[in-house]
Write a structure and sequence with these properties.
By secondary structure, the chain is mainly beta. Helices cover 9% and strands 41% of the residues.
Amino acid sequence: MNKLLQTIGLVLIVALAGCSGLPAGDGSDAGNGTSIENDTAGATEVTQSLGITVDETTAGEELSEIGATYPREQFVVSAAQHDEIEIGVDSDGDGTAEHTFNETHISGVNNNAYSFDITLESGYTLQSGDVVTVVYPAVDNPEEPGEYTVELRVNERQTANATATIE
């Protein structure tokens, strides 16, 4: 649990640094972030944490899906078991998830070579400004260092971009 809180805190720092007042969901990096356990080029089976700030697009809906699409031919996304995935919601902006969801809430995990989608039955109603985070443990980094754009999704309706930096 302590590792989850540290990861969520790091994601929030990245997500909110210098851009928290900008709207998300328009394809910008505003309010969204990534944290990579091992950012070395070519590293395999890396745990990546992604965060997306809820906007008016999904506010008022139950949190039912979170997903990410990585650049094709760059990252490789492998299958992950339900108990390896962590989902959290920071609803008051303090860097700590007030709501956490584990394998008992996850109803499905789908992936292909470059993306994943997680469906869940959270019972939690999203509020504008919530930061939804997901920790996904099975991503291979690109062979080349650089900055890569990752598309994040909440409930298949809100999308935003975040930058993953590979050293």
